Protein backbone atom coordinates (compact mmCIF):
# COMPACT_ATOMS: atom_id res chain seq x y z
CA UNK A 1 0.00 0.00 0.00
CA UNK A 2 1.36 3.44 -0.90
CA UNK A 3 0.76 6.61 1.14
CA UNK A 4 1.57 9.66 -1.00
CA UNK A 5 2.41 12.99 0.70
CA UNK A 6 3.72 15.66 -1.68
CA UNK A 7 6.67 14.05 -3.48
CA UNK A 8 7.27 11.31 -0.97
CA UNK A 9 6.02 7.75 -1.16
CA UNK A 10 6.09 5.72 2.03
CA UNK A 11 5.75 1.97 1.66
CA UNK A 12 5.08 0.22 4.95
CA UNK A 13 5.54 -3.50 5.28
CA UNK A 14 4.16 -5.20 8.33
CA UNK A 15 5.55 -8.70 8.61
CA UNK A 16 4.19 -11.29 10.99
CA UNK A 17 4.19 -15.07 11.25
CA UNK A 18 0.73 -16.51 10.70
CA UNK A 19 -0.30 -19.54 12.75
CA UNK A 20 3.24 -20.90 13.00
CA UNK A 21 3.91 -24.24 11.46
CA UNK A 22 1.85 -25.49 8.56
CA UNK A 23 1.36 -28.83 10.33
CA UNK A 24 -0.89 -27.09 12.89
CA UNK A 25 -2.54 -24.63 10.55
CA UNK A 26 -6.00 -26.15 11.03
CA UNK A 27 -7.91 -25.14 14.14
CA UNK A 28 -10.05 -27.46 16.20
CA UNK A 29 -11.84 -26.84 19.47
CA UNK A 30 -12.37 -30.57 20.08
CA UNK A 31 -9.91 -33.33 21.05
CA UNK A 32 -9.52 -35.09 17.72
CA UNK A 33 -7.50 -38.27 17.38
CA UNK A 34 -7.40 -41.22 15.02
CA UNK A 35 -10.20 -42.82 17.07
CA UNK A 36 -12.44 -39.73 17.13
CA UNK A 37 -16.21 -40.30 17.24
CA UNK A 38 -17.07 -36.81 16.01
CA UNK A 39 -18.53 -36.71 12.48
CA UNK A 40 -19.08 -33.97 9.91
CA UNK A 41 -22.49 -32.26 10.01
CA UNK A 42 -21.80 -29.73 7.24
CA UNK A 43 -18.98 -27.94 5.37
CA UNK A 44 -18.78 -24.16 5.00
CA UNK A 45 -16.28 -22.28 2.81
CA UNK A 46 -15.18 -18.72 3.61
CA UNK A 47 -12.76 -16.30 1.91
CA UNK A 48 -13.44 -17.59 -1.61
CA UNK A 49 -14.69 -14.47 -3.33
CA UNK A 50 -14.24 -16.11 -6.74
CA UNK A 51 -13.66 -19.85 -6.38
CA UNK A 52 -16.83 -21.96 -6.31
CA UNK A 53 -17.45 -24.00 -3.16
CA UNK A 54 -17.68 -27.28 -5.07
CA UNK A 55 -14.12 -26.88 -6.40
CA UNK A 56 -12.83 -26.98 -2.82
CA UNK A 57 -15.21 -29.63 -1.49
CA UNK A 58 -14.31 -31.91 -4.44
CA UNK A 59 -10.77 -32.27 -3.01
CA UNK A 60 -11.85 -33.17 0.54
CA UNK A 61 -12.00 -36.61 2.09
CA UNK A 62 -14.06 -35.15 4.96
CA UNK A 63 -17.66 -35.21 3.76
CA UNK A 64 -20.98 -35.26 5.60
CA UNK A 65 -21.09 -38.18 8.04
CA UNK A 66 -17.33 -38.91 7.91
CA UNK A 67 -15.50 -39.19 11.25
CA UNK A 68 -13.23 -36.16 11.85
CA UNK A 69 -9.58 -36.79 12.79
CA UNK A 70 -6.54 -34.54 12.95
CA UNK A 71 -4.93 -36.64 10.20
CA UNK A 72 -7.83 -36.09 7.79
CA UNK A 73 -7.93 -32.36 8.60
CA UNK A 74 -4.25 -32.02 7.74
CA UNK A 75 -4.62 -34.14 4.60
CA UNK A 76 -7.58 -32.10 3.29
CA UNK A 77 -5.81 -28.85 4.07
CA UNK A 78 -2.85 -29.89 1.91
CA UNK A 79 -5.06 -31.21 -0.91
CA UNK A 80 -6.95 -27.90 -1.10
CA UNK A 81 -3.68 -25.94 -1.08
CA UNK A 82 -2.40 -28.14 -3.91
CA UNK A 83 -5.11 -26.74 -6.20
CA UNK A 84 -2.74 -23.80 -6.64
CA UNK A 85 -5.54 -21.28 -6.10
CA UNK A 86 -4.81 -20.18 -2.53
CA UNK A 87 -2.00 -18.62 -0.52
CA UNK A 88 -3.21 -20.25 2.69
CA UNK A 89 -5.83 -22.78 3.78
CA UNK A 90 -7.20 -23.23 7.32
CA UNK A 91 -9.71 -25.81 8.51
CA UNK A 92 -11.82 -25.08 11.61
CA UNK A 93 -13.86 -27.61 13.58
CA UNK A 94 -16.99 -26.05 15.11
CA UNK A 95 -19.09 -28.30 17.42
CA UNK A 96 -22.85 -28.11 16.77
CA UNK A 97 -24.23 -31.01 18.83
CA UNK A 98 -23.14 -34.16 20.61
CA UNK A 99 -20.96 -36.13 18.23
CA UNK A 100 -21.42 -33.61 15.38
CA UNK A 101 -19.31 -30.69 14.15
CA UNK A 102 -19.17 -28.34 11.18
CA UNK A 103 -16.01 -27.96 9.10
CA UNK A 104 -15.31 -24.33 8.21
CA UNK A 105 -12.69 -23.97 5.47
CA UNK A 106 -10.96 -20.56 5.38
CA UNK A 107 -8.99 -19.74 2.23
CA UNK A 108 -6.92 -16.79 1.06
CA UNK A 109 -7.15 -16.61 -2.73
CA UNK A 110 -4.24 -15.95 -5.03
CA UNK A 111 -4.53 -13.51 -7.89
CA UNK A 112 -5.92 -15.38 -10.87
CA UNK A 113 -5.49 -13.36 -14.09
CA UNK A 114 -2.37 -11.56 -15.17
CA UNK A 115 0.29 -11.30 -17.84
CA UNK A 116 3.36 -13.06 -16.56
CA UNK A 117 7.02 -13.44 -17.46
CA UNK A 118 8.18 -16.86 -18.61
CA UNK A 119 11.68 -17.96 -17.69
CA UNK A 120 13.39 -21.12 -16.61
CA UNK A 121 15.78 -23.87 -17.60
CA UNK A 122 15.19 -26.72 -20.05
CA UNK A 123 16.08 -30.32 -19.26
CA UNK A 124 17.23 -29.22 -15.77
CA UNK A 125 20.29 -27.56 -17.37
CA UNK A 126 21.07 -23.95 -16.38
CA UNK A 127 22.83 -23.40 -19.72
CA UNK A 128 19.52 -24.01 -21.51
CA UNK A 129 17.82 -20.84 -20.35
CA UNK A 130 14.54 -19.73 -21.90
CA UNK A 131 12.43 -16.60 -21.45
CA UNK A 132 9.25 -15.06 -22.76
CA UNK A 133 5.80 -13.90 -21.75
CA UNK A 134 2.34 -15.30 -21.30
CA UNK A 135 -1.22 -14.49 -20.36
CA UNK A 136 -2.91 -16.69 -17.77
CA UNK A 137 -6.36 -17.03 -16.29
CA UNK A 138 -5.85 -19.64 -13.56
CA UNK A 139 -9.40 -19.68 -12.20
CA UNK A 140 -11.74 -18.98 -15.11
CA UNK A 141 -15.39 -18.80 -14.01
CA UNK A 142 -14.20 -19.68 -10.48
CA UNK A 143 -14.10 -23.37 -11.49
CA UNK A 144 -10.31 -23.89 -11.49
CA UNK A 145 -10.32 -23.73 -15.30
CA UNK A 146 -6.99 -22.73 -16.83
CA UNK A 147 -6.64 -20.71 -20.04
CA UNK A 148 -3.21 -19.53 -21.07
CA UNK A 149 -1.01 -18.67 -23.99
CA UNK A 150 2.77 -18.39 -24.00
CA UNK A 151 5.52 -17.16 -26.30
CA UNK A 152 8.94 -18.55 -25.35
CA UNK A 153 12.33 -17.43 -26.70
CA UNK A 154 15.83 -18.57 -25.89
CA UNK A 155 16.47 -22.30 -25.75
CA UNK A 156 13.80 -24.35 -27.57
CA UNK A 157 11.49 -21.43 -28.51
CA UNK A 158 7.79 -22.18 -28.71
CA UNK A 159 4.26 -20.83 -28.94
CA UNK A 160 1.33 -22.52 -27.25
CA UNK A 161 -2.33 -22.14 -26.31
CA UNK A 162 -3.89 -24.42 -23.71
CA UNK A 163 -7.21 -24.90 -21.93
CA UNK A 164 -7.93 -27.12 -18.94
CA UNK A 165 -11.38 -27.74 -17.45
CA UNK A 166 -11.48 -30.02 -14.37
CA UNK A 167 -15.27 -29.58 -14.12
CA UNK A 168 -16.56 -30.52 -17.53
CA UNK A 169 -19.59 -31.73 -15.56
CA UNK A 170 -20.86 -30.09 -12.40
CA UNK A 171 -19.78 -32.94 -10.12
CA UNK A 172 -16.19 -32.88 -11.40
CA UNK A 173 -16.43 -36.45 -12.69
CA UNK A 174 -15.28 -35.51 -16.21
CA UNK A 175 -12.42 -33.18 -17.12
CA UNK A 176 -10.82 -31.89 -20.30
CA UNK A 177 -7.28 -30.92 -21.27
CA UNK A 178 -6.39 -29.46 -24.68
CA UNK A 179 -3.35 -27.81 -26.20
CA UNK A 180 -1.99 -26.51 -29.50
CA UNK A 181 1.76 -25.88 -29.69
CA UNK A 182 4.53 -25.09 -32.13
CA UNK A 183 8.07 -25.83 -30.90
CA UNK A 184 11.61 -25.62 -32.15
CA UNK A 185 13.45 -28.36 -30.23
CA UNK A 186 17.20 -28.91 -30.25
CA UNK A 187 18.01 -32.52 -31.06
CA UNK A 188 18.78 -34.60 -27.96
CA UNK A 189 20.06 -37.73 -29.68
CA UNK A 190 23.81 -38.33 -29.60
CA UNK A 191 23.46 -41.03 -32.26
CA UNK A 192 21.43 -38.82 -34.63
CA UNK A 193 24.04 -36.06 -34.32
CA UNK A 194 27.02 -38.33 -34.96
CA UNK A 195 28.78 -37.75 -38.24
CA UNK A 196 27.60 -34.16 -38.61
CA UNK A 197 26.49 -30.97 -36.91
CA UNK A 198 23.63 -30.95 -34.44
CA UNK A 199 20.22 -29.90 -35.75
CA UNK A 200 16.82 -28.59 -34.71
CA UNK A 201 13.46 -30.38 -34.86
CA UNK A 202 10.27 -28.46 -35.61
CA UNK A 203 7.20 -29.88 -33.85
CA UNK A 204 3.57 -28.96 -34.37
CA UNK A 205 1.22 -30.74 -31.98
CA UNK A 206 -2.47 -30.79 -31.21
CA UNK A 207 -3.78 -32.79 -28.25
CA UNK A 208 -7.11 -33.35 -26.49
CA UNK A 209 -7.56 -35.50 -23.37
CA UNK A 210 -10.80 -36.53 -21.69
CA UNK A 211 -10.58 -37.68 -18.08
CA UNK A 212 -13.00 -39.55 -15.85
CA UNK A 213 -12.38 -39.04 -12.13
CA UNK A 214 -13.61 -41.51 -9.51
CA UNK A 215 -13.62 -39.98 -6.03
CA UNK A 216 -10.50 -38.01 -5.20
CA UNK A 217 -7.98 -40.78 -5.90
CA UNK A 218 -8.64 -42.39 -9.30
CA UNK A 219 -8.63 -40.89 -12.81
CA UNK A 220 -8.73 -42.57 -16.23
CA UNK A 221 -7.67 -40.55 -19.29
CA UNK A 222 -8.34 -41.08 -23.00
CA UNK A 223 -5.87 -39.13 -25.11
CA UNK A 224 -5.83 -38.23 -28.77
CA UNK A 225 -3.77 -35.88 -30.88
CA UNK A 226 -1.80 -35.21 -34.02
CA UNK A 227 1.85 -34.31 -34.45
CA UNK A 228 4.13 -33.19 -37.27
CA UNK A 229 7.91 -33.46 -36.83
CA UNK A 230 10.17 -31.86 -39.43
CA UNK A 231 13.97 -32.09 -39.45
CA UNK A 232 16.44 -30.73 -42.02
CA UNK A 233 18.81 -32.94 -43.97
CA UNK A 234 17.26 -36.36 -43.58
CA UNK A 235 19.46 -39.12 -42.25
CA UNK A 236 18.32 -42.57 -41.12
CA UNK A 237 17.11 -42.49 -37.54
CA UNK A 238 16.10 -38.82 -37.49
CA UNK A 239 12.66 -39.54 -38.95
CA UNK A 240 10.84 -42.56 -40.33
CA UNK A 241 9.94 -40.77 -43.56
CA UNK A 242 12.80 -40.22 -46.00
CA UNK A 243 11.42 -36.72 -46.63
CA UNK A 244 12.51 -35.65 -43.15
CA UNK A 245 8.90 -34.98 -42.10
CA UNK A 246 6.82 -37.39 -40.00
CA UNK A 247 3.07 -36.88 -39.65
CA UNK A 248 1.13 -39.16 -37.33
CA UNK A 249 -1.89 -39.38 -35.02
CA UNK A 250 -1.50 -40.18 -31.33
CA UNK A 251 -3.93 -42.27 -29.27
CA UNK A 252 -3.54 -43.41 -25.69
CA UNK A 253 -5.08 -44.43 -22.41
CA UNK A 254 -3.74 -43.83 -18.92
CA UNK A 255 -4.72 -44.47 -15.32
CA UNK A 256 -3.75 -42.30 -12.33
CA UNK A 257 -4.03 -43.18 -8.64
CA UNK A 258 -3.00 -40.21 -6.49
CA UNK A 259 -3.31 -39.83 -2.70
CA UNK A 260 -0.46 -37.33 -2.23
CA UNK A 261 -1.12 -34.53 0.24
CA UNK A 262 0.96 -31.59 -0.98
CA UNK A 263 1.78 -31.99 -4.66
CA UNK A 264 4.72 -29.56 -4.71
CA UNK A 265 6.65 -31.43 -1.94
CA UNK A 266 4.65 -34.41 -0.64
CA UNK A 267 5.05 -35.87 2.83
CA UNK A 268 2.33 -38.50 2.59
CA UNK A 269 0.58 -40.61 -0.03
CA UNK A 270 1.05 -42.70 -3.15
CA UNK A 271 1.12 -41.96 -6.87
CA UNK A 272 0.67 -44.69 -9.46
CA UNK A 273 0.48 -43.81 -13.16
CA UNK A 274 0.39 -46.32 -16.01
CA UNK A 275 -0.21 -45.59 -19.69
CA UNK A 276 -0.17 -47.04 -23.18
CA UNK A 277 0.30 -44.65 -26.12
CA UNK A 278 0.16 -45.46 -29.85
CA UNK A 279 2.09 -43.18 -32.24
CA UNK A 280 1.03 -43.51 -35.87
CA UNK A 281 -1.15 -46.04 -37.64
CA UNK A 282 -0.40 -49.61 -38.63
CA UNK A 283 1.48 -48.96 -41.87
CA UNK A 284 5.00 -48.28 -43.16
CA UNK A 285 5.28 -44.87 -41.45
CA UNK A 286 5.50 -44.11 -37.73
CA UNK A 287 4.24 -47.19 -35.86
CA UNK A 288 5.27 -47.11 -32.19
CA UNK A 289 3.64 -48.19 -28.93
CA UNK A 290 4.96 -47.01 -25.57
CA UNK A 291 4.07 -48.56 -22.21
CA UNK A 292 5.03 -46.53 -19.15
CA UNK A 293 4.68 -46.80 -15.41
CA UNK A 294 5.52 -44.47 -12.52
CA UNK A 295 5.22 -45.45 -8.83
CA UNK A 296 5.94 -42.99 -6.00
CA UNK A 297 5.49 -43.47 -2.25
CA UNK A 298 5.76 -40.93 0.58
CA UNK A 299 5.85 -42.38 4.12
CA UNK A 300 5.94 -40.25 7.30
CA UNK A 301 8.02 -42.07 9.92
CA UNK A 302 7.56 -41.96 13.71
CA UNK A 303 9.54 -38.72 13.83
CA UNK A 304 9.86 -35.59 11.69
CA UNK A 305 11.50 -37.76 9.00
CA UNK A 306 9.67 -38.62 5.75
CA UNK A 307 10.84 -41.46 3.52
CA UNK A 308 10.11 -41.10 -0.22
CA UNK A 309 10.70 -43.55 -3.04
CA UNK A 310 10.15 -43.75 -6.78
CA UNK A 311 10.37 -46.43 -9.49
CA UNK A 312 9.59 -45.74 -13.16
CA UNK A 313 9.94 -47.23 -16.61
CA UNK A 314 9.05 -46.55 -20.26
CA UNK A 315 9.17 -49.45 -22.74
CA UNK A 316 8.78 -49.28 -26.54
CA UNK A 317 7.27 -51.87 -28.90
CA UNK A 318 6.22 -52.28 -32.56
CA UNK A 319 8.09 -50.34 -35.28
CA UNK A 320 11.46 -48.53 -35.36
CA UNK A 321 12.01 -45.60 -33.02
CA UNK A 322 13.13 -42.24 -34.49
CA UNK A 323 15.50 -40.12 -32.39
CA UNK A 324 12.77 -37.74 -31.21
CA UNK A 325 10.88 -40.63 -29.56
CA UNK A 326 13.76 -42.17 -27.63
CA UNK A 327 14.37 -42.17 -23.87
CA UNK A 328 17.21 -40.41 -22.09
CA UNK A 329 18.95 -39.85 -18.81
CA UNK A 330 20.59 -36.43 -18.70
CA UNK A 331 17.59 -34.32 -19.70
CA UNK A 332 14.27 -34.27 -17.85
CA UNK A 333 15.24 -37.50 -16.05
CA UNK A 334 18.56 -37.35 -14.19
CA UNK A 335 20.73 -39.50 -11.98
CA UNK A 336 22.35 -37.35 -9.33
CA UNK A 337 26.06 -38.13 -9.44
CA UNK A 338 25.73 -38.41 -13.25
CA UNK A 339 23.62 -35.27 -13.51
CA UNK A 340 25.11 -33.98 -16.79
CA UNK A 341 25.82 -37.34 -18.41
CA UNK A 342 23.52 -38.08 -21.37
CA UNK A 343 22.55 -41.71 -21.96
CA UNK A 344 20.31 -42.66 -24.88
CA UNK A 345 18.10 -45.67 -25.51
CA UNK A 346 14.66 -46.85 -26.55
CA UNK A 347 13.70 -47.96 -23.04
CA UNK A 348 14.36 -46.54 -19.58
CA UNK A 349 14.21 -47.73 -15.97
CA UNK A 350 15.02 -45.81 -12.80
CA UNK A 351 14.71 -45.91 -9.00
CA UNK A 352 15.22 -43.21 -6.37
CA UNK A 353 14.93 -42.88 -2.60
CA UNK A 354 15.08 -39.83 -0.31
CA UNK A 355 14.83 -39.14 3.41
CA UNK A 356 13.56 -35.65 4.32
CA UNK A 357 13.94 -33.78 7.61
CA UNK A 358 12.38 -30.32 8.26
CA UNK A 359 14.94 -27.70 9.26
CA UNK A 360 12.17 -25.09 9.13
CA UNK A 361 8.66 -26.52 9.02
CA UNK A 362 6.57 -24.46 6.58
CA UNK A 363 5.46 -21.09 7.97
CA UNK A 364 3.40 -18.26 6.55
CA UNK A 365 4.60 -14.67 6.46
CA UNK A 366 1.93 -11.99 6.23
CA UNK A 367 2.73 -8.74 4.39
CA UNK A 368 -0.44 -7.09 5.64
CA UNK A 369 -0.26 -3.90 3.55
CA UNK A 370 -0.07 -5.73 0.24
CA UNK A 371 -3.24 -6.81 -1.60
CA UNK A 372 -4.64 -10.00 -0.07
CA UNK A 373 -3.81 -12.06 -3.17
CA UNK A 374 -0.08 -11.40 -2.60
CA UNK A 375 0.16 -10.80 1.14
CA UNK A 376 0.54 -14.34 2.53
CA UNK A 377 3.79 -16.05 1.60
CA UNK A 378 4.86 -19.59 2.49
CA UNK A 379 8.41 -20.68 3.34
CA UNK A 380 10.03 -23.91 4.50
CA UNK A 381 13.45 -25.60 4.51
CA UNK A 382 14.18 -29.34 4.40
CA UNK A 383 17.36 -31.39 4.57
CA UNK A 384 17.55 -34.56 2.48
CA UNK A 385 19.76 -37.56 1.80
CA UNK A 386 19.17 -39.48 -1.42
CA UNK A 387 20.21 -42.30 -3.73
CA UNK A 388 19.45 -42.74 -7.46
CA UNK A 389 20.03 -45.51 -9.99
CA UNK A 390 18.91 -46.14 -13.56
CA UNK A 391 19.69 -47.25 -17.07
CA UNK A 392 18.54 -46.97 -20.69
CA UNK A 393 18.83 -49.64 -23.39
CA UNK A 394 17.91 -50.46 -26.97
CA UNK A 395 15.66 -53.36 -27.91
CA UNK A 396 18.54 -55.28 -29.44
CA UNK A 397 20.18 -55.35 -25.98
CA UNK A 398 18.99 -56.89 -22.73
CA UNK A 399 18.34 -55.03 -19.48
CA UNK A 400 21.48 -55.65 -17.39
CA UNK A 401 22.25 -54.63 -13.80
CA UNK A 402 25.85 -53.99 -14.81
CA UNK A 403 24.73 -51.08 -17.02
CA UNK A 404 23.08 -49.15 -14.18
CA UNK A 405 24.44 -45.71 -13.30
CA UNK A 406 24.27 -44.87 -9.58
CA UNK A 407 24.58 -41.85 -7.33
CA UNK A 408 23.96 -40.69 -3.76
CA UNK A 409 24.29 -37.54 -1.68
CA UNK A 410 22.60 -34.90 0.45
CA UNK A 411 20.85 -31.58 -0.08
CA UNK A 412 18.96 -28.58 1.28
CA UNK A 413 15.56 -27.90 -0.27
CA UNK A 414 13.69 -24.59 -0.05
CA UNK A 415 9.88 -24.35 -0.25
CA UNK A 416 9.07 -20.88 -1.56
CA UNK A 417 5.86 -18.90 -2.24
CA UNK A 418 3.50 -19.83 -5.09
CA UNK A 419 4.46 -23.53 -4.90
CA UNK A 420 8.08 -22.95 -6.00
CA UNK A 421 10.77 -25.39 -4.83
CA UNK A 422 14.52 -24.71 -5.10
CA UNK A 423 16.92 -27.59 -4.44
CA UNK A 424 20.66 -27.53 -3.71
CA UNK A 425 22.22 -31.01 -3.72
CA UNK A 426 25.70 -32.49 -3.59
CA UNK A 427 26.06 -35.97 -5.13
CA UNK A 428 28.71 -38.63 -5.69
CA UNK A 429 28.61 -41.35 -8.33
CA UNK A 430 29.78 -44.96 -7.91
CA UNK A 431 33.33 -43.79 -8.70
CA UNK A 432 33.18 -41.29 -5.79
CA UNK A 433 33.34 -38.29 -8.11
CA UNK A 434 31.24 -35.45 -6.72
CA UNK A 435 29.17 -32.64 -8.22
CA UNK A 436 27.08 -29.72 -6.96
CA UNK A 437 23.51 -29.51 -8.29
CA UNK A 438 21.16 -26.51 -8.33
CA UNK A 439 17.72 -27.59 -9.48
CA UNK A 440 14.09 -26.46 -9.55
CA UNK A 441 11.14 -28.49 -8.28
CA UNK A 442 11.02 -31.56 -6.09
CA UNK A 443 13.11 -34.49 -7.31
CA UNK A 444 9.91 -36.56 -7.65
Structure write-up:
The protein is mainly beta and 444 residues long. It has a domain at 17-109: Ubiquitin-like (UB roll). It is 6% helix and 58% strand. The chain contains four helices and 25 strands. The strands form four sheets. The protein has a 17-stranded antiparallel sheet that branches. It starts with a strand and ends with a strand.
Condensed summary:
By secondary structure, this protein is mainly β. It is built from four helices and 25 strands.
Number of strands: 25
Class by alpha and beta content: mainly beta
User: With helices defined by DSSP (H or I, 4 residues minimum), what is the helix count?
Assistant: 4
| CATH architecture descriptor text of the domain at 17-109 | Roll
> Quick one: CATH class of the domain at 17-109?
Alpha Beta
Strand content: over 45%
Low-pLDDT residue intervals, each spanning 5 or more residues: 1-24
Radius of gyration: 24 Å
Helix share bin: under 10%
Order of helices and strands: EEEEEHHEEEEEEEHEEEEEEEEEHEEEE
Give the termini separation.
39 Å
